[in-house]
């Protein structure tokens, strides 16, 4: 059974894994988007898709070296 619900997290510490491509809509991302992000909390009790993201304060972004 697949459940669908919406939730809003504020001031939460999350681990996120995302994909970006402007050439792979519908493959790595939704057909109308160029990015796709999953998030989970530190205890791994929550996992979900990120549809909107507002970053404030301290943020660490890790990108691969080309």
Question: What does this 3D model show about the protein?
Answer:
With 66 residues, this protein is mainly β. It has no helices and three strands. It is globular, with a radius of gyration of 13 Å. The termini are far apart.
Characterize the biggest β-sheet. Answer: 3 strands, antiparallel
Strand order of the largest sheet: 1-2-3
Fraction of residues in β-strands: 25-35%
- As a whole number of angstroms, the C-alpha radius of gyration is 13 Å
Into which percent range does the helicity of residues fall? under 10%
Span between N and C termini?
40 Å
User: Helix-strand pattern, N to C?
Assistant: EEE
The mean pLDDT is 82
Counting DSSP H or I runs of 4 or more residues, the number of helices is 0
Shape: globular
Tally of extended strands?
Answer: 3
The chain-level structural class is mainly beta
List keywords for this structure.
66 residues; single chain; three-stranded antiparallel β-sheet
Summarize the structure.
This protein has 66 residues and is mostly beta strands. It contains no helices and 3 strands.
Topology (elements, then pairings):
Layout (H helix, E strand, L loop, with lengths): L13 E7 L14 E7 L5 E4 L16
Antiparallel strand pairs: 1-2, 2-3
């Amino acid at each position: 059974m697949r459940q669908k619900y919406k939730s809003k997290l504020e001031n939460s510490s999350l681990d996120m894994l995302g994909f970006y491509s402007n050439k792979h809509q519908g493959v790595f991302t939704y057909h109308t988007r160029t990015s796709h992000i999953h998030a989970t909390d530190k205890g791994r009790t929550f996992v979900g898709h990120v549809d909107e993201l507002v970053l404030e304060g301290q943020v660490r972004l890790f990108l691969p070296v080309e």
